[in-house]
Amino acid sequence: MSITMRVGLYQGWMRLTGRGPQIQLHQDWQTKQYLPADQSRQDHLDSLARMLLHANKHVPFYRKQFALAALDEVAINADPCAALESLPLLDKKTLREHFDDLSSEDLNSRQWHVNTSGGSTGEPARFIQDSSYHHYGMAGKSLFDDWSGYAGGEPRVILWGSERDLLVGRESWKARVGRFLRNEYPLNTFRMSEADLRGFVDVINTVRPAQITAYVESAFELARYVESEGLSIHSPDGIVTSAGTLFPHMREVIERVFRTRVFNRYGSREVGDVACNCAEQDGLHINPYTHHVEILREDGSPCENGEVGEVVVTLLTNQAMPLLRYRIGDMASWSGELCECGRPWPVMKEVAGRVNSILRTRNGTFATAALSTMMYFKDAEKTRPFESFGRYQLVQKSLDHLVVRLAIENQELFAEERPILIKNIKAVFGDDIRLDVETPATLPRNSSGKHIYIWSELE
Hints:
The protein is α/β, with parallel strands linked by helices. 37% of the residues lie in helices and 22% in strands. The protein contains 15 helices and 17 strands. The protein has helices at residues 3-16, 20-32, 37-58, 60-68, 73-78, 80-85, 92-97, 99-102, 131-147, 173-182, 194-207, 216-229, 248-258, 368-374, 411-429; strands spanning 112-116, 126-130, 156-160, 184-188, 211-215, 238-242, 261-268, 272-276, 284-286, 291-296, 309-315, 326-334, 347-354, 389-398, 401-408, 434-438, 454-456. Strand 8 (272-276) and strand 9 form a beta hairpin. Helix 3 (37-58) crosses helix 4 and helix 12 crosses helix 13. The radius of gyration is 23 Å and the shape is globular.
C-alpha cells in the first residue's frame, strides 16, 4: 500500500472513530499559530478566563480559594492572570489529599477517566481527564508533528520505555488495529541490551519511518550504539524526543548519527504536551490554546528572561479536574525573544531538568548542563567522547559530596580515562569536592523504564 493510500486510510479512520473535534482543532491551529501577537494573546486570556470561571463555579477546592481571595466572576474576567496568581500552587500531595474537592461537580455530563502520574519524583498521584482534554491533546501532538515534517498515517517508529504505556503483544484487537491504521511500530526500550539495540536498527531500516518518536535517553543510547558499531541506519524526516532532558551533546549525537533534525517535545502525563521545538530549534513554543506557563523563583516571584526557575503549568483544556498552577517538577527559563518562524507563541529557552535533577555548586550556580557535557566528552573541544563507560548516574548528596556511578564497558580503558573524568567533574565543582566513584553491575531505571542520569538529594 502506498504512503498516500495509508495517509488517506488514517484520515478516514480518524473521522469514523469520532475524532472530528481533534481534526478541527488541528486545522484551526494550523492557521492560528501565525495570528498577530495581540490577537494570540487575547485568545489565550479568553481560554484562561473560561477555565478559571469553570473552576470557580464547579470545583469546590477552587471555589473556596477564590472566595478567600475575594474574587468573583467580574474580577476573574477583568484580569484572569491576576486571578490565577491569587491561587496557591498545586502539587501531587494536594492532588492526593483533595482529590474529591478538585473534581468538577459536573462529571456526570462528561466522558472521563482516571489517570495517574508517572511517579518519577515520588509517590504517583491520581487525576481525572475528560474527552475534551484528549481531543485538544491529540490535536496538539498533530500540530507539533507538522513542525517536524510528519503527516499522520506515514510510518512512525516509537522508541518508548514504559511497561505501562507499551503492552505490546497483550493489547486488545482494537489497539492493534489502531496501531496498524496509524502506521506505528512500537519498540519497547525498557530493555536495551546489545541484541535489543541491533533489533531496533533492523526494524528502523525495514520500516523506513518518516518520523521516530522516542524517549530522549532511548534515542541517545541507540545513536551511541549505531555509531560505536559503525552501522548504517535509515534517516527519518525528523526525530521527536520527550520524557527527559535533551542536553546539547545528546541532540548533537542523535542528529549526527541519524542525519536529521531533533524536535524536542515537552510535557507530562498530568498536563499533556506543553511545548515543542519548531524548525528554527531556538527554544520551545508553548501552545497558548492548551497551557498557561509560569516560571517562578523559590519565593514565588516570576523569573526574568534567561533566569532558571520552577515551571508551573495551568492546563486550559481539562474541566473534569482543573490543574491550576500545577508544579510539574521541572526547571526552565524564558527566551524573551520572538522566534524567526513567525509564531508569536511564548518561547521557553531551555528545560534545565527535573527539580530534583538540578545539581548546584557552592557558589549557587547550576552545574547540570555543563556537567552532562563533561560526562560525555573528554575534551573542551567536544571531539573525543569517553569510550570506557556508557550510562552514568550522578547523585548529589551535598554541595561537597557527589556519587558517580558508571556502567563500565572497557575496564582497561577506564583506568586511563578515570583521571580525565575526575578532572572534568572537579572543573565544575572545585578540587575539594568529595567524589565517590562506583562501578555497579547494573544501573537502575525508574518505574517508567527511564534511566535517571542525574539526581539531587539536596533539600
